[in-house]
Write a structure and sequence with these properties.
It is a single chain. With about 240 residues, the chain is an all-alpha fold. It has one domain. The chain is built from ten helices and no strands. Helix 8 runs antiparallel to helix 9. It is globular and about 50 Å long. The N and C termini lie far apart (about 55 Å). The N terminus is likely disordered. This is Inner membrane protein YbhL. Belongs to the BI1 family.
Amino acid sequence: MDNEEVKMDYTKLNQAGYAPSQATYDMGLRDYMVAIYKYMAFALILTGVVAFTVSTSEAMMQAIFGSPLVWVVMLAPVGIAFFLSASFQRLSLQAVQTTFWVYAATIGLSLSSIFMMYTGTSIARVFFITASVFGAMSIYGYTTKKDLTNFGSFLIMGLIGVIIASVVNIFLKSSMMEFMLSLIGLFIFIGLTAYDVQKIKHTYYAVGGSGEIASKVAIYGALNLYMDFINIFIHLLRFMGDRRE
């Protein structure tokens, strides 16, 4: 169901006297968004705890990054994300929640390496900068009256292009190309934050904001925002992080 269909359905229900008032929807939407940001915040905390804990254990770091297990750690989040997308409809709410937490934990495993590469102070500084940028774009996506659908589609196509170019650059090993791709990627995920927030609002009206389906969709929305935050953080860290000597 696209945005126009949602708007039309809501208008018809209102005219028939069956739809909740706008005030009811606004209160429900705020609660819905708060729940999504709570999921996202707890996922970030879980990721940070896992990353820091693993980074403080020389044995765990050696087991992960000193063996072929590193490929499992790096590729596992991709597999989990695809699994969640493909199985979203048939999974129970509890299964969706569990998959979400497992995804956040595996991201923590892969991010543990940043504590070897960057100073703790710069990691904290970049995290708070990321939070500020993410917060600003979230507010924009929530409050803007402009339809960001076409803008989001453009960004997604750009992201696909960046991924393909990054794979090519593995063989070219061009530092300039890597720099440009990181810069483009940063702006793509900043833009996607606003797009995803607006999409979550439209989805809320489509699913009614309550029930198991709405709860599952909320987790999926939290996953999208979580990925936006993590990617902004990683890209900013490449530009602003202080490397260890």
